[in-house]
Design a protein that fits this description.
With 162 residues, the protein is of the alpha/beta class. The chain is built from 5 helices and 6 strands, in the order E-H-E-E-H-E-H-E-E-H-H.
C-alpha cells in the first residue's frame, strides 16, 4: 500500500508572494518578520541607487528610472498576492486585479475608493504645478508602524485561512 507524503505548510499558501515597493519603505523589518512567521515569500523591489549588501531579505534591483520599481511589481504580482506601497498610482493598477495593497501607514487600498484617491492625488499635483506646496508627509510614528503591522497581519491571516 502506498502512503501519500504531504508536506505540512506552516500558514499561508506557498504560491502567495509579498512584493514591497522598497525604495522608501519604513516597515521593511515588520514585513520581513511577518512574512517569515506566515511562511510567505517576500520580494523587496528597489532601484540600483538604493543597493545594499546588508539586507537579509530577498531583493530585486531594477533600473533607477522613475517607474521601474512600479513596472516590475505590476508585471510580476498576480491575483491573491500582497503589495506594500505608498504609491496610489501603483495601487490603482493592482487592486482591480484582486491584489491586496496596503500602505506602510496601514491603509488598505480598495477598488471602491481608488477613484477618490486618484482624484485627490490629481488635485495635489495640480496645486504643485501652480506653485502651491503642502507641508509634506508627517514623520512616521510608532503608532503608524503598529497600525501597519495590524493591517498587514490581518491580510496574511485572512489569506492563511486563520
Amino acid at each position: 500500500m502506498f502512503e501519500k507524503h504531504v508536506e505540512k505548510e506552516t500558514y499561508a499558501r506557498r504560491d502567495l508572494t509579498i512584493f514591497v515597493d522598497a525604495d522608501a519603505c519604513p516597515v521593511k523589518q515588520e514585513i520581513f518578520s511577518l512574512a517569515r512567521q506566515y511562511n510567505v515569500e517576500s520580494v523587496f523591489v528597489s532601484s540600483y541607487s538604493h543597493f545594499s549588501h546588508d539586507q537579509p531579505m530577498q531583493w530585486v534591483y531594477v533600473d533607477a528610472e522613475k517607474e521601474a520599481v512600479d513596472l516590475y511589481i505590476v508585471n510580476h504580482a498576480k491575483a491573491g498576492d500582497v503589495v506594500v506601497t505608498q504609491d496610489v498610482g501603483l495601487a490603482s493598477m493592482l487592486v482591480h486585479r484582486n491584489i491586496y495593497v496596503v500602505s506602510p501607514r496601514g491603509n488598505v487600498y480598495t477598488e471602491e475608493e481608488m477613484g477618490h484617491r486618484l482624484y485627490v492625488r490629481y488635485l495635489h499635483a495640480k496645486q504643485r504645478r501652480q506653485g502651491v506646496y503642502a507641508k509634506g508627509m508627517k514623520r512616521f510614528s510608532a503608532e503608524e508602524r503598529q497600525t501597519f503591522r495590524k493591517s498587514f497581519e490581518k491580510i496574511l491571516s485572512k489569506l492563511a485561512g486563520k
